[in-house]
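Need tokens for this chain, all 555 residues.
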Amino acid sequence: MGENKELEVFGQFMRQKKKPKIDKSKRTKGVIYTRVSSKEQLDGASLETQMEFCQNYAVKNKMDVVNYFGATNESAKTDDRKQFNEMIAYVKRRKDIGYIIVYSFKRFSRTGISKTYLDLEESGIQIISATEYVDNTSSSGKFQKHIYMEMGRMDNENKRKSCVHGMQRKLRSGYWTGVTPFGYVNLNPGKRKTPELAITKEGELLKIAFELKAEYDLTYAELAEKLKSKGWTKRAKNFSEYFRNPFYCGLIVSSLIPDEVIKGNHPALVSKETFLKVNGILRKKQYGGNYNKDDENLPLKQFIKADSCGTIYTGYVVKKKNLFYYKNNRIGSKENVSAKKMHQLFVDLLSSYQLESEEWKNPIKSMMMEAFVEIHEESINDTIALNKKVAKLEQDLEKIERRFVLGEIERDLYLKYKCQFEDEINTIYEEIENSEFKLSNLEKATDNAVEDALQLPQAWLSGDIEEKKRIQGIVFPSGIVYDYKKHHYRTERVNLLFSSIPLFMEDLRGKKNGTSSKKLNLSRLVLEAGLEPARPKGHKILSLACLPIPPLEHS
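Here are the structure tokens for all 555 residues:
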């Protein structure tokens, strides 16, 4: 007894019993919810049967039903249903509603133990089945109810898989499933009918846009403005999505058949060549013209311009002696130079950016990556963030597309969020396109540049006309200037990957001799003026934003 009194003083530290959130005794009324899953069932007895069973259950158990919901076709695959949501809002608003009567638990939900169900149970609102008896007051009864709901979810998953397999078979047969892509119309609509797609007037305008982009590389805004008078009404940003969709060149890709490309049965809007050209997949030389013998012997033609007047140098041949010459194309100019001398001078220029030894290859690649990443750290982080954001949005877009195809969401809701996601994705794509730095291309560009730098002069001398022009273009994207009086080349812009090589080699030599600074002065990559050949005042090194990355790829 004394011990009990001694413990009483510690009563202040006892854990208090949680008070119920609601007074369940006041929840004495209920509602009935009926539903069929398709319009075809509306004319049958299903809804009447459900209502009859639910009302009989309410009368037998002396339940006071105050409202009715449903009586229509709604998918139970999600809780995103109009009548269902109206009912949930109603029972939560009324403090006297204690139960929802349904024909079976799967009429309420086919997603298993959903958050909506748990919220209702927590609020003291029970889901009661008129055909599946369970004891709602016992733990075993609640467990049994959960089994019924999970069985509904499993049945739903099986139907979903069957539906997806059907769509996969249709896609692999070359027939599109889901919403008809922009620019086409389905002449044979119907859920179980074979689609017959035809190109619309909007599709013809999109075809023109493809061709203009391929031929003249117009901006999205310029394309939209040019087509506006012909009836184009879509936003300029939408071109980004259209140009990336291989459906328009007669092919089918879908998240339902990942890693597969299928030849579609629909008419192609544009040729595969035009589609690839617009997307920048094919290299320039695949679309270039044929070169004649003069071009083979005069690769610097149209690439050199005169220091004196800015006129482009062309070339000619003295047929009797089979000698080739470059000449300033300005009328009255007498600047004619032997091709042999011009080529030797160009080889000397290329030698300035040659990597001296194979042993420098890996160290210079590492230094390039480190230096360029440090210089463009902010741009890299911005680009990474943008890529992550667009990947998330594309996943969300795929999810709502799949939910719409499977009938889980209504068309209006799907179109609303589809447009919202597409606008955001297109905006981000444009930001990425206009960004200063593209991290994904840097490593490949660095590898290719170092490989080229190992044999730069030799590769140019031994290469055909295509190889010569490729090397010229990647090292000096803006061409070179020739000073006739001094017989000297100067460069206005040099690809940073090549102009940095002499600096890195100088630093590596210093490390080898023990005289290098601990860290290369990165500002020299932009401001250095002492490289051989010397660059005149005002010389600009090409920034990474202007790197001609695609041509760096080797055949």
